[in-house]
Amino acid sequence: MSVAFRRESDEEHLEPKFERPIAPGPNLVTPRGLDLIRAEVVRLEAVIASAAPDAVDALRRDLRYWHTRQATAELAPPPPEGEIGIGSRVTIRQNGQARTIEIVGGDEADPAAGRIGFQAPLARALIGGYKDEAVAFAGNTITIVEIA
């Protein structure tokens, strides 16, 4: 029989499955971030126990990611009094508009909820700043209004 008529397996045409990428550098987290990582591990373990066989591989891949994040998590040290660091809630003023953000670990980041990862450009510009300081960012000036 000609090779042209050979049935190839369905697996040959699937996209390769890669591990979820892990951000380079330290895995600094807030206490809330560490709790979220632990909760995700527990959730995935429960889902895998009752998942359909065709979904288990993807779930296990996600579980490997969260196990790695849990194993490498380091609680970020609290910043010095009055200085912005990981875990700080900061109110800034940019172009006349006030905005409050919290600087958190990468896995905890949720920009829509006002939480940005410490690796984000805005967070890097603010870390180490103090109240009433003006910081240059993306061609604009940001004023630090309050730090909590």
From TrEMBL:
Gene3D superfamilies: Transcription elongation factor, GreA/GreB, C-terminal domain. Residues 1-20 have a biased composition (Basic and acidic residues). Residues 1-25 are annotated as: Disordered. Keywords: Elongation factor, Protein biosynthesis. It comes from the Bacteria. Residues 80-141 form the Transcription elongation factor GreA/GreB C-terminal domain. Pfam families: GreA_GreB (PF01272). Coiled coil: none annotated. One of its GO terms (biological process) is regulation of DNA-templated transcription elongation. One of its GO terms (molecular function) is RNA polymerase binding. PANTHER family: TRANSCRIPTION ELONGATION FACTOR GREA (PTHR30437), TRANSCRIPTION ELONGATION FACTOR GREB (PTHR30437:SF6). This is Transcription elongation factor, GreA/GreB family. It comes from Sphingomonas gellani.
